Amino acid sequence: MADSDVLDRFTSFLRERRLPVTQQRLAIADILLRAPGHLSADDVAAELARKGQTVGLATVYRTLDLLVSCDLAEARDFGEGFRRFEASRNLPNHYHLTCTVCGAVTEFFDDRIPEIIRRTAAARGFVPAQHRLLVRGTCRACRKTPSVLARRPL
Ligand SMILES: [Zn+2]
Ligand SMILES: [Zn+2]
After folding, report:
1. Closest ligand to 108 CA?
2. Nearest alpha carbon to residue 11 among 27, 1, 46
3. DSSP assignments along 62-108, one per residue
4. Is 114 exposed, middle or buried (0-12, 13-18, 19+ CB in 10 A)?
5. pLDDT per residue as tens digits for the range 77-132
6. Model's pTM, two decimal places?
7. How many Å lie between the centroid of ligand 1 and the Cα of residue 133?
8. Residue 18 C-alpha to ligand 2 middle, in angstroms?
9. What does the longest C-alpha to C-alpha distance in the chain come to?
10. Rounded distance, CA 103 to CA 39, Å?
11. Which domains does the chain have, with CATH numbers?
């Protein structure tokens, strides 16, 4: 998905804010925006290293935050003690089941969830700006192999 349009958008965003458009920032954007999943800053740094690029973790974090600021990416908190990032894919009402054993993330969609939040808030005169749903547990594969559970307790 990291076509040149998206990278152009990031480049314009950086220029508008008079932030340097560096090769490292573009490489980080390219990795995150191409990834189908949910990457941590460490995952991005590991991928950069695999490509032979040395980029400090602070730069990775800063760039990921900039991608979120310009709406190209979204930050997720799966309750792991660090954030993960995913490319914005125009997926409304998209939620996650996060396995605490193997880290697998399953995405699902359900319009009823935002509807419940909207109705509940409206009934109380509350205007919701955002909501977050965190579902942690054990995926089917991990439930089938209890030895894995024993090895990686959380
Ligand atoms: Zn699992
Ligand atoms: Zn997702």
Report:
1. 2
2. 27
3. HHHHHHHHTTSEEEEE-SSSSEEEEE----TTEEEEEETTT--EEEE
4. middle
5. 888 899 999 998 767 678 999 999 998 999 998 989 999 999 999 999 999 988 88
6. 0.78
7. 19
8. 31
9. 55
10. 11
11. 4-87 (1.10.10.10), 94-151 (3.30.1490.190)
Residue 90 sits at φ, ψ, to 5 deg, of 55, 45
Query: Kind of pairing, strands 105-109 and 94-99?
Result: antiparallel
- CA distances to 93, 105, 114, 117, 148 from 108, rounded to whole Å, are 8, 10, 13, 17, 25
Query: Which bound ligand lies closest to the C-alpha atom of 86?
Result: 2
pLDDT in tens, 25-47: 999 999 999 988 899 999 999 99
* Residues 133, 153: Cα–Cα separation, whole Å: 23
Listing from the earlier edge strand, what are the strands of the sheet with 83-87? 39-40, 83-87, 73-77
User: Alpha-carbon Rg of the chain, whole angstroms?
Assistant: 18
DSSP conformation class of 36: S
Residue type, 46: A
Place of tokens 């740094």: 45
